[in-house]
């Protein structure tokens, strides 16, 4: 089958839909875009839990839907460009769900260069082969991996990967702080615990970030 040609889109940011090897369609910037720029506000088509379980999840829709944050089990299909964003482990676009307006807002999280693909983060638990993992830091066996932030009680039970990445590639900053009990070890060293710190520039994105927060209060990266 012939490769589909690029699809121009009616927007003032110069976004273009292109066919990408190994990914299918993707969204490309044809000119630089500043950080914190709203790329798209997509209305959504909502499916009840019952109709999605019986029908939607057994179709191609299951690759494009978002979990709706109202605890009803509803699923949402983003219309417009909202269904074109591919996954990246290092996304340059964030999204926030406006349940009241029934739409999803997509915003750049860093400066975008001409030719960059615009990607969001789907999940740690992917249902497809991640063709985005091409960074040398992940492929080079000589790249040191820090174990300073490894959690001793980390498990795979929640389906979230606990593989560690180089610290400079994580959207978090790790540091140590004193334990509440102020316990000192036998050699006189003050005991510390590991912690993650993340700056959330858009408060409405907090809900999305908390989706990777486990019940025991630990973060998985």
List the helices and strands and how they pair.
Layout: E1 7-8, E2 15-20, E3 24-29, E4 38-47, H1 49-54, E5 65-67, E6 75-78, E7 86-87, E8 93-98, E9 103-108, E10 117-120, H2 136-139, E11 173-178, E12 192-197, H3 206-210
Parallel strand pairs: 7-10
Antiparallel strand pairs: 1-2, 2-3, 3-10, 4-6, 4-9, 5-6, 8-9, 11-12
- Give a short account of the largest sheet: 5 strands, mixed
Write down the oligomeric state: single chain
Overall pLDDT score: 69
CATH architecture descriptor name of the largest domain? Beta Complex
The CATH class name of the largest domain reads Mainly Beta
What share of residues is helical?
Answer: under 10%
CATH superfamily caption of the largest domain: SET domain
Order of helices and strands: EEEEHEEEEEEHEEH
Per DSSP, the total helix count is: 3
Radius of gyration: 20 Å
Morphology call: globular
CATH topology of the largest domain: Beta-clip-like
Q: Terminal Cα separation, in Å?
A: 39 Å
- Low-pLDDT runs: 133-165, 174-180, 214-221
**Care to count the β-strands?**
12
Number of domains: 2
Percent of residues in beta strands? 25-35%
Strand order of the largest sheet: 1-2-3-10-7
Structural class: mainly beta
């Amino acid at each position: 089958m012939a490769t589909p040609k690029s699809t121009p889109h009616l927007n003032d940011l110069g976004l273009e839909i292109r066919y990408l090897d190994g990914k299918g369609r993707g969204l490309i910037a044809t000119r630089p875009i500043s950080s914190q720029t709203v790329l798209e506000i997509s209305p959504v088509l909502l499916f009840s839990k019952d109709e999605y379980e019986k029908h939607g999840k057994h179709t191609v829709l299951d690759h494009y839907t978002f979990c709706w944050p109202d605890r009803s089990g509803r699923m949402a299909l983003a219309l417009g460009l909202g269904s074109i964003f591919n996954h990246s482990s290092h996304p340059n676009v964030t999204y926030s769900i406006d349940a009241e307006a029934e739409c999803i807002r997509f915003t750049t999280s860093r400066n975008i260069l001409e030719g960059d693909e615009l990607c969001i983060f789907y999940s740690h638990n992917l249902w497809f082969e991640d063709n985005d993992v091409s960074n040398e830091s992940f492929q080079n066996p000589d790249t040191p991996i820090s174990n300073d932030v490894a959690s001793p009680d980390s498990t795979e039970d929640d389906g979230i990967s606990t593989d560690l990445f180089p610290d400079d590639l994580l959207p978090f900053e790790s540091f140590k702080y004193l334990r509440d009990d102020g316990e000192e070890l036998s050699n006189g060293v003050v005991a510390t615990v590991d912690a993650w710190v993340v700056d959330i520039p858009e408060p409405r994105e907090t809900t999305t970030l908390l989706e990777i927060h486990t019940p025991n209060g630990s973060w998985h990266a």
